[in-house]
Task: structure prediction
Amino acid sequence: MIFKLKGTFQHYDWGGESFIPNWLKLKETEDKPYAEYWLGAHRLAPSLIEFEGQWLELDRVLDKAPKLLGEKSQGKFGDELPFLLKILDVKSPISIQIHPTAAEAKLGYEQEDEMGIPLTAYNRVYKDHNHKAEMMIALSDFWLLHGFRTEANIVETLRERESLKQLANHIERRSLASVYAEIMQADQSQLAEWLLPIIHSKREDYQQGKLKLDDPDYWVLFSMDSLQISEDKLDAGLVCFYLFNIVHLEKGESVYQGAGFPHAYLRGQSIELMANSDNIIRGGLTKKYVNIPALLNTIDYREITPKIIPAYEGDEPLYLYPTSEIDDFVMQRFEFKPFDEEKFTATSATILLVMSGSLYIDLGDDSIYLQQGEAAFISADSEVDIIGETDGYAVIATLPCE
Ligand SMILES: [Zn+2]
Result:
């Protein structure tokens, strides 16, 4: 079966105002940032599916008819849709974060339960038993922090700045892990000693557009401005620009982020597909709760060279993004032209989102028409024909079919 699917908005502070409403061609908008558009069955903000002329919440529908998910999905992930598909419009940096492995999540969840911390509490970290692997595809130039740089690069970067030289020496004498812990627990006067000389000496260059975008100083000043961080309330996350890889994705490029890797989205628009979890361990650039022990316990200090998945330029109509480490989701891209027809077999519940152009999804006696921004929920064991009406492309979120 196929159903039209309507997503939900998240109006987080860091979101931009116009990208999502323009892309969805919304006629009326609220006077709020449109940060995220969610397609999925997350209990906090389930999408709506159209059933016999009525719009129903997808999580409730799946509660009543879990068979729509398919046997394989139910066997592995229970009666929940295992993934969540999002469109993001990042105007100012989102908190630095890591996501636990499933084993860490389970343990953390049980410990917090034993400690009597309610699920909705400010200081609750583990909200479910799941890991939260995620992948994203850039829809514009996109900037993010992604894992630790090599130690040699960190030391060199720190040493180039007088006020951070001491940290470079500490790394050489001790270890990156212990210096990271020192940074994350530093008090205001220490943060001021490290950061204020840079902020003061680089502000003018920043304002005149003289700093390069791969220069960590640029992002320190950009974050101070866009997150309205005052000089007497510095955030330890600002120091992390000197420790983590600053990655630039061009439109169409994508990246996968597994458990334990620190990351932060800094600016740009993207499609994101993730495991259905809300387990976020924050590590700065945030006013939200930062649980230092949980952070130090789960963070992966390995130096990484970011693996950027190039924009697809082949001529296969259905392209599968390589995210083979996990089995909670896969992302496919369907590129179409008028009258292009492609068979798609949903072995488990699938979400198809039209990113541009328009198409038909045909299931024999059932057919729906979708334009840019519109989506469909395709239940398990459906075989459909996707037929292009114009030039365009769609993304398809589903489970890997092994
Ligand atoms: Zn994340």
The radius of gyration is 22 Å. The CA atoms of residues 87 and 271 lie 5 Å apart. The chain has a mean pLDDT of 93.
